[in-house]
User: Fold this.
Amino acid sequence: MKASLNLFLVVAFTTIANVALANVDRANDVKSTEIVAQIYPMKGDMIYVQLEKAGKGKVYIQISDLNGHVLHSESMKDDIRILKRFDISNLPSGSYIYEVSTDRYSLKKRIEKE
Assistant:
């Protein structure tokens, strides 16, 4: 009886530990796709892109015109927390698309330059 109880406790503990470790692995997967991004214009022909990303993987920033011509493109990897500033004073008046993306996330914002 005592041996059966010990065996049951060992099996139960092992099962609980495996389930807990599986949940930790899934939590890391979710965290690796989390990204917080904001794109906002400021006075003086400046555009700010604020990023905060935890985990591995690249983040891409791309600026293009409405015809799809890429004017600027860059990538950053792994854990980042940055504020990028883009001076658009040399661009002609018009609309531009700012995009921040990962393999599972994309944020696009249309900015008007006067």
User: Anything to note?
Assistant: DSSP finds one helix and seven strands in the chain.
